[in-house]
Design a protein that fits this description.
- The structure is a single chain.
- Helices cover about 30% and strands about 10% of the residues.
- The protein is α/β, with parallel strands linked by helices.
- Strands 2-3-4-1-5-6-7 form a 7-stranded mixed beta sheet, with helices on both faces.
- Helix 2 packs across helix 3.
- It is globular and about 65 Å long.
Length: about 375
Amino acid sequence: MVHEDRERAQSVGDTTPSYPPVLRHHTDGRHIVDEQGRPLLLHGRLGSKVVCDRCGCPTQVAICPSCHCLLPQGVEDGALSVAVVGARNSGKTVFLSQLDWQLMHTVPERFGVAVDYPGGTAGLASKLQEYRKKMTDGQRQLPEQTRVEGNRGQAPAVYRWDWGPARKRHASRVISIYDTPGEAVATLQRTTELGHLRAADAVVLVIDPFSLSENRELAREKGIDPGSETLANDVLDGLIGSLRYDDQNVGKGKLLTTPLAIAVTKMDAFWSQFPEGSPLRTTGEAVPYFDEEDSKSVHDFVLSQLQAWGGANLTNKIAANFKTFRYFAVSALGDEPSYRDGRLTGTVSPTRVVDPVLWILSGDRKFLPTDSSQSGS
């Protein structure tokens, strides 16, 4: 039997009747609800069955825990929902556009895998391709700002990573990526409406270095509006508050278990400030595994740099709330654009854009190998 799915209607604007999600319930049959009275989902590993709370029978289909879209058959190893959060002007949309390109074009060659859009190009993925086209064709125009409404009415960008039959276990993964504007996260009231954020398996927090106190004057000189000096902290506070509402994240006073990747964007504007030999001046090697040693070196340098730029409150808050986190240095364009008129000045050549997602995949039941000895297994 099919029903109208309210969560799906709110997430992706689709009111077509669909298979209902399985909800959590108490032993007496009452549904477990959130602070607004909305039932919470019962999560099960993709490929395994859970017992329906309505009829008591095992389920036969799998849906995305965030937007309730049907997931493609044949992908039995797992699904991964990643929420990408960033304040206005953080470079999040450009980052996502280049991430889409990297996942579809450079990742398959680097890792020897097949990556596709299960069900075809739609939702966020379609928009990201439009943005990239505007950046690389004659217009050379930067994307417009994400609407504050976020992804409501828009399906996520969904990718299927398939190792193929050569790999005996953990052969595939469905990766759903959601675009979440920081303004929708900056207040606790707004974050409770973002079901995809609360159900995310991992979060990528996009930080604009120009928003930090030591870089704000430089931003103005370049024609950049650094925005509110407190917005980055407000976004982080809202993110933490939202994740703590989900009872699968441990309660008050405990560290959050959701992995957090912090992607510091626009690093091309600061390369000349970094000393020779700094990992922030390198692009990393295109090895067929996640280079954990290189990633840790970047993490240490980015952490110290954020603190030098006046971001100690951010870094301290992250350490005080998250069990697992990693800092990344990202240049989505490879060269500074003309910020005053929003146009590109050079060839688009992104560096380290895919690293945050690779780190998340490496920690997801070791789906992605972390050294050369495992890369062929």
